[in-house]
Amino acid sequence: MSTAVKQRQTIRFRGRSFLATVLAPQLPLADWLAELERLASRSAGYFEHRPVILDVSGLPISERDFKGLLAALFERDIKVMGVEGVDTSWLGFGMPPSVSGGKHTDIVHTPNTEPPTKAKQSFGDQSIPSLLIETPVRSGQSIIFPQGDVTVIGSVASGAEIIAGNSIHIYGALRGRAIAGSTGNAAARIFCQRFEAELIAIDGLYQTADEIDAKYRGKAVQAWLARDQMNMAALA
User: Domain Septum formation inhibitor MinC N-terminal, which positions (predicted)?
Assistant: First the structure.
């Protein structure tokens, strides 16, 4: 007579890396939220399906202010998946967990494209990593390369985005979003052959389509920062 042996269920642990946008509020919070809402309204879909880390490190706010800030972000459909720099006693059931130790990631989302090419550009004694995209970037795609420059041989569609630690070079039309200097490089620049962007940003300073002088639309341009202001000029 045989006896069936019931096997115990095995629990398996796996590690994965996910990209999140870090939001670091500034006081007064009401003004910061108004600016955030303006950005979201003028760049449709910017926060859609985008996980967010809320960084309140060093921000002199009360527990009440903090919870009000979380509620305000939730009302704007901004999904906070973790909080950095918070008093952990403020975090209760159903609230985002405390996180720390985040680091920049490599390319995380390039669906429906051929594998991009990594290279290094040499400037004197310095070697700067770069990423070459040899196909157009379609709507809904994100190219993220915090290590250096990104070059696109083709166009960037509306609803697509390029995020680079250094400069962005687009040999086609820029209709989506270009975010250069994402790791704090104020010397980064954005170059494109045909400017029709939804949004451009360098080192955290941004301009949306309706804020940019109409004379640059459809032209070959470059953008850079000077004295914490966005500057643009036509390429000869």
Answer: 11-77
